[in-house]
What we know:
Blueprint: E1 5-6, H1 13-23, E2 31-35, E3 39-46, E4 49-60, H2 61-64, H3 68-80, E5 89-94, E6 98-104, E7 108-110, H4 111-117, H5 125-144, E8 147-148, E9 157-160, E10 165-167, E11 174-175, H6 194-198, H7 204-219, H8 229-237, H9 253-262, H10 273-277, H11 280-286
Parallel strand pairs: 1-5
Antiparallel strand pairs: 2-3, 3-4, 4-6, 5-6, 7-9, 8-11, 9-10
Helix pairs in contact: 5-7, 5-11, 7-9
Amino acid sequence: xxxxxxxxxxxxxxxxxxxxxxxxxxxxxxxxxxxxxxxxxxxxxxxxxxxxxxxxxxxxxxxxxxxxxxxxxxxxxxxxxxxxxxxxxxxxxxxxxxxxxxxxxxxxxxxxxxxxxxxxxxxxxxxxxxxxxxxxxxxxxxxxxxxxxxxxxxxxxxxxxxxxxxxxxxxxxxxxxxxxxxxxxxxxxxxxxxxxxxxxxxxxxxxxxxxxxxxxxxxxxxxxxxxxxxxxxxxxxxxxxxxxxxxxxxxxxxxxxxxxxxxxxxxxxxxxxxxxxxxxxxxxxxxx
Length: 288
Protein backbone atom coordinates (compact mmCIF):
# COMPACT_ATOMS: atom_id res chain seq x y z
CA UNK A 1 0.00 0.00 0.00
CA UNK A 2 1.26 3.46 -0.87
CA UNK A 3 2.48 5.43 2.12
CA UNK A 4 1.14 8.94 2.37
CA UNK A 5 0.28 11.76 4.68
CA UNK A 6 -3.15 13.36 4.40
CA UNK A 7 -2.86 16.87 5.76
CA UNK A 8 -5.49 19.17 7.20
CA UNK A 9 -7.32 21.18 4.56
CA UNK A 10 -10.37 23.39 4.49
CA UNK A 11 -12.48 20.40 5.47
CA UNK A 12 -10.76 20.37 8.87
CA UNK A 13 -11.85 17.47 11.03
CA UNK A 14 -14.23 16.10 8.43
CA UNK A 15 -11.47 15.68 5.86
CA UNK A 16 -9.32 13.49 8.10
CA UNK A 17 -12.16 11.30 9.37
CA UNK A 18 -13.89 11.11 6.00
CA UNK A 19 -10.73 9.99 4.20
CA UNK A 20 -9.95 7.50 6.95
CA UNK A 21 -13.40 5.92 6.73
CA UNK A 22 -13.18 5.65 2.96
CA UNK A 23 -10.28 3.25 3.40
CA UNK A 24 -10.80 1.59 6.79
CA UNK A 25 -13.68 0.05 8.69
CA UNK A 26 -13.87 2.07 11.89
CA UNK A 27 -16.89 2.86 14.07
CA UNK A 28 -18.19 2.46 17.62
CA UNK A 29 -17.97 -1.34 17.30
CA UNK A 30 -14.32 -1.39 16.23
CA UNK A 31 -12.19 -3.49 18.59
CA UNK A 32 -9.93 -1.54 20.96
CA UNK A 33 -6.46 -3.10 21.30
CA UNK A 34 -5.23 -0.73 23.96
CA UNK A 35 -5.58 2.63 25.67
CA UNK A 36 -2.77 5.02 26.57
CA UNK A 37 -2.19 8.53 27.88
CA UNK A 38 -2.66 10.11 24.45
CA UNK A 39 -5.39 7.97 22.91
CA UNK A 40 -6.44 4.49 21.84
CA UNK A 41 -5.36 1.79 19.39
CA UNK A 42 -7.99 0.06 17.25
CA UNK A 43 -7.87 -3.19 15.28
CA UNK A 44 -9.61 -2.96 11.93
CA UNK A 45 -9.27 -3.85 8.26
CA UNK A 46 -8.99 -2.12 4.91
CA UNK A 47 -12.36 -1.78 3.17
CA UNK A 48 -10.85 -2.65 -0.20
CA UNK A 49 -9.10 -5.76 1.14
CA UNK A 50 -10.74 -7.20 4.25
CA UNK A 51 -7.79 -9.58 4.81
CA UNK A 52 -5.51 -6.57 5.29
CA UNK A 53 -5.68 -5.93 9.04
CA UNK A 54 -4.18 -2.82 10.62
CA UNK A 55 -3.75 -1.21 14.01
CA UNK A 56 -4.82 2.44 14.02
CA UNK A 57 -3.46 4.70 16.75
CA UNK A 58 -5.89 7.57 17.36
CA UNK A 59 -3.99 10.31 19.23
CA UNK A 60 -5.66 13.33 20.79
CA UNK A 61 -3.73 16.49 19.86
CA UNK A 62 -4.90 18.33 22.97
CA UNK A 63 -3.37 15.61 25.14
CA UNK A 64 -0.24 15.38 23.00
CA UNK A 65 0.53 19.12 23.19
CA UNK A 66 4.35 19.39 23.00
CA UNK A 67 4.62 15.70 22.12
CA UNK A 68 3.23 16.20 18.61
CA UNK A 69 6.72 16.83 17.22
CA UNK A 70 7.93 13.61 18.86
CA UNK A 71 5.09 11.67 17.24
CA UNK A 72 5.91 13.14 13.85
CA UNK A 73 9.58 12.24 14.35
CA UNK A 74 8.56 8.65 15.17
CA UNK A 75 6.47 8.58 11.98
CA UNK A 76 9.39 9.87 9.91
CA UNK A 77 11.68 7.20 11.38
CA UNK A 78 9.20 4.38 10.74
CA UNK A 79 8.65 5.69 7.22
CA UNK A 80 12.38 5.30 6.55
CA UNK A 81 12.50 1.67 7.74
CA UNK A 82 11.44 -1.36 5.73
CA UNK A 83 12.38 -4.71 7.23
CA UNK A 84 10.45 -7.95 7.90
CA UNK A 85 11.34 -7.84 11.60
CA UNK A 86 10.30 -4.22 12.16
CA UNK A 87 6.66 -3.18 12.55
CA UNK A 88 5.46 -1.47 9.39
CA UNK A 89 4.06 2.03 9.21
CA UNK A 90 1.48 2.48 6.44
CA UNK A 91 0.10 6.02 6.51
CA UNK A 92 -1.07 8.99 8.55
CA UNK A 93 -4.40 10.80 8.63
CA UNK A 94 -4.52 14.19 10.25
CA UNK A 95 -7.35 16.52 11.27
CA UNK A 96 -7.86 19.39 13.69
CA UNK A 97 -8.30 17.22 16.77
CA UNK A 98 -6.66 13.87 16.10
CA UNK A 99 -3.69 12.17 14.44
CA UNK A 100 -4.42 8.72 13.04
CA UNK A 101 -1.42 6.44 12.57
CA UNK A 102 -2.09 3.35 10.48
CA UNK A 103 0.33 0.57 11.40
CA UNK A 104 0.84 -3.09 10.67
CA UNK A 105 -1.26 -5.25 12.98
CA UNK A 106 1.07 -7.72 14.66
CA UNK A 107 -0.85 -10.80 15.80
CA UNK A 108 1.00 -12.39 18.68
CA UNK A 109 2.37 -11.63 22.15
CA UNK A 110 5.09 -9.38 23.57
CA UNK A 111 8.34 -11.20 24.30
CA UNK A 112 7.91 -10.32 27.98
CA UNK A 113 4.69 -12.33 28.06
CA UNK A 114 6.29 -15.21 26.19
CA UNK A 115 9.13 -15.29 28.75
CA UNK A 116 6.69 -15.58 31.66
CA UNK A 117 4.97 -18.51 29.93
CA UNK A 118 8.16 -20.57 29.66
CA UNK A 119 9.17 -23.23 32.16
CA UNK A 120 11.62 -21.51 34.55
CA UNK A 121 11.08 -18.42 32.35
CA UNK A 122 13.86 -19.55 30.03
CA UNK A 123 14.09 -20.47 26.36
CA UNK A 124 16.22 -23.16 24.77
CA UNK A 125 19.34 -21.81 23.10
CA UNK A 126 17.87 -22.80 19.73
CA UNK A 127 14.79 -20.62 20.33
CA UNK A 128 16.88 -17.80 21.78
CA UNK A 129 19.17 -17.88 18.75
CA UNK A 130 16.22 -17.75 16.37
CA UNK A 131 14.84 -14.65 18.09
CA UNK A 132 18.22 -12.98 18.56
CA UNK A 133 19.18 -13.46 14.92
CA UNK A 134 16.04 -11.64 13.82
CA UNK A 135 16.59 -8.89 16.39
CA UNK A 136 20.16 -8.30 15.25
CA UNK A 137 18.99 -8.22 11.64
CA UNK A 138 16.31 -5.67 12.53
CA UNK A 139 18.67 -3.46 14.51
CA UNK A 140 21.35 -3.69 11.81
CA UNK A 141 18.78 -2.29 9.38
CA UNK A 142 18.01 0.56 11.79
CA UNK A 143 21.69 1.33 12.24
CA UNK A 144 22.28 1.29 8.49
CA UNK A 145 19.70 4.10 8.31
CA UNK A 146 21.45 5.87 11.25
CA UNK A 147 18.48 5.16 13.53
CA UNK A 148 19.06 4.33 17.20
CA UNK A 149 16.08 2.57 18.81
CA UNK A 150 17.02 3.47 22.41
CA UNK A 151 14.36 1.35 24.11
CA UNK A 152 14.94 -2.30 23.25
CA UNK A 153 13.27 -4.46 25.88
CA UNK A 154 10.93 -7.50 25.94
CA UNK A 155 7.84 -5.27 26.02
CA UNK A 156 8.88 -3.70 22.70
CA UNK A 157 9.47 -7.00 20.92
CA UNK A 158 6.48 -8.89 19.54
CA UNK A 159 6.57 -12.62 18.84
CA UNK A 160 4.04 -13.32 16.12
CA UNK A 161 1.76 -16.33 15.91
CA UNK A 162 4.16 -17.88 13.39
CA UNK A 163 7.04 -17.37 15.88
CA UNK A 164 8.81 -14.53 14.11
CA UNK A 165 10.00 -11.26 15.63
CA UNK A 166 8.73 -7.71 15.22
CA UNK A 167 10.58 -4.81 16.82
CA UNK A 168 7.97 -2.20 17.81
CA UNK A 169 7.55 1.14 19.60
CA UNK A 170 9.96 3.62 18.09
CA UNK A 171 8.72 6.42 20.35
CA UNK A 172 12.19 7.02 21.84
CA UNK A 173 14.10 6.36 18.62
CA UNK A 174 16.39 8.99 17.23
CA UNK A 175 18.03 9.68 13.90
CA UNK A 176 21.73 10.17 14.56
CA UNK A 177 24.23 11.58 12.11
CA UNK A 178 27.27 9.37 11.62
CA UNK A 179 29.96 10.22 14.13
CA UNK A 180 27.67 12.41 16.23
CA UNK A 181 26.82 11.23 19.73
CA UNK A 182 23.40 11.39 21.37
CA UNK A 183 23.18 12.97 24.81
CA UNK A 184 19.63 12.56 26.12
CA UNK A 185 19.35 9.80 28.72
CA UNK A 186 16.52 7.67 27.32
CA UNK A 187 15.31 4.11 27.64
CA UNK A 188 14.38 1.62 30.35
CA UNK A 189 16.90 1.45 33.24
CA UNK A 190 17.63 -2.30 33.29
CA UNK A 191 18.43 -2.26 29.57
CA UNK A 192 20.41 0.98 29.38
CA UNK A 193 24.08 0.88 28.44
CA UNK A 194 26.81 2.54 30.54
CA UNK A 195 27.34 5.28 27.95
CA UNK A 196 23.62 6.16 27.92
CA UNK A 197 23.83 6.71 31.67
CA UNK A 198 26.88 8.91 31.05
CA UNK A 199 24.93 10.98 28.49
CA UNK A 200 27.17 10.42 25.45
CA UNK A 201 26.40 7.45 23.22
CA UNK A 202 25.84 6.07 19.74
CA UNK A 203 24.02 3.16 18.07
CA UNK A 204 26.17 0.67 20.01
CA UNK A 205 23.83 1.36 22.96
CA UNK A 206 21.26 -0.84 21.20
CA UNK A 207 23.79 -3.69 21.06
CA UNK A 208 24.19 -3.59 24.84
CA UNK A 209 20.39 -3.84 25.21
CA UNK A 210 20.39 -6.92 22.98
CA UNK A 211 23.05 -8.42 25.25
CA UNK A 212 20.68 -7.94 28.19
CA UNK A 213 17.89 -9.59 26.17
CA UNK A 214 20.05 -12.62 25.34
CA UNK A 215 21.13 -13.05 28.98
CA UNK A 216 17.46 -12.93 30.04
CA UNK A 217 16.25 -15.38 27.39
CA UNK A 218 18.62 -18.16 28.40
CA UNK A 219 18.51 -17.63 32.18
CA UNK A 220 15.23 -15.97 33.12
CA UNK A 221 17.16 -13.30 35.04
CA UNK A 222 18.16 -9.73 34.33
CA UNK A 223 21.96 -9.35 34.43
CA UNK A 224 21.87 -6.12 36.42
CA UNK A 225 19.71 -6.04 39.53
CA UNK A 226 19.78 -4.08 42.75
CA UNK A 227 17.85 -2.78 45.73
CA UNK A 228 17.45 0.62 44.06
CA UNK A 229 18.14 2.44 40.79
CA UNK A 230 21.51 3.73 41.99
CA UNK A 231 22.76 0.19 42.64
CA UNK A 232 21.49 -1.02 39.26
CA UNK A 233 23.19 1.89 37.49
CA UNK A 234 26.48 1.26 39.33
CA UNK A 235 26.45 -2.37 38.25
CA UNK A 236 25.68 -1.41 34.66
CA UNK A 237 28.50 1.13 34.53
CA UNK A 238 30.95 -1.51 35.78
CA UNK A 239 29.41 -4.44 33.88
CA UNK A 240 28.95 -6.30 37.17
CA UNK A 241 27.08 -9.44 36.18
CA UNK A 242 27.71 -13.17 36.54
CA UNK A 243 26.81 -16.61 35.24
CA UNK A 244 26.29 -18.15 38.70
CA UNK A 245 22.56 -18.83 38.33
CA UNK A 246 21.80 -22.55 38.09
CA UNK A 247 20.19 -22.02 34.70
CA UNK A 248 23.57 -21.15 33.20
CA UNK A 249 24.92 -24.63 33.95
CA UNK A 250 23.17 -25.87 30.81
CA UNK A 251 24.04 -22.81 28.69
CA UNK A 252 26.85 -23.32 26.18
CA UNK A 253 30.21 -21.62 26.55
CA UNK A 254 29.66 -20.05 23.10
CA UNK A 255 26.46 -18.36 24.24
CA UNK A 256 28.15 -17.02 27.36
CA UNK A 257 31.04 -15.80 25.23
CA UNK A 258 28.68 -13.83 23.00
CA UNK A 259 27.04 -12.25 26.05
CA UNK A 260 30.45 -11.15 27.38
CA UNK A 261 31.22 -9.52 24.03
CA UNK A 262 27.91 -7.64 23.98
CA UNK A 263 27.95 -6.44 27.60
CA UNK A 264 31.22 -4.54 27.26
CA UNK A 265 31.50 -1.17 29.00
CA UNK A 266 33.66 0.48 26.33
CA UNK A 267 31.43 0.71 23.28
CA UNK A 268 34.37 0.72 20.87
CA UNK A 269 35.24 -2.76 22.19
CA UNK A 270 31.64 -4.01 21.97
CA UNK A 271 30.63 -6.13 18.98
CA UNK A 272 28.66 -4.50 16.21
CA UNK A 273 25.38 -6.09 15.20
CA UNK A 274 26.96 -7.53 12.07
CA UNK A 275 29.89 -9.00 14.00
CA UNK A 276 27.46 -10.50 16.52
CA UNK A 277 25.65 -12.36 13.74
CA UNK A 278 28.99 -13.83 12.68
CA UNK A 279 29.70 -15.16 16.18
CA UNK A 280 30.35 -18.90 16.58
CA UNK A 281 27.19 -19.34 18.69
CA UNK A 282 24.90 -18.49 15.78
CA UNK A 283 26.85 -20.84 13.51
CA UNK A 284 26.50 -23.72 15.98
CA UNK A 285 22.78 -23.03 16.56
CA UNK A 286 22.17 -22.98 12.80
CA UNK A 287 23.39 -26.59 12.65
CA UNK A 288 21.07 -27.79 15.43
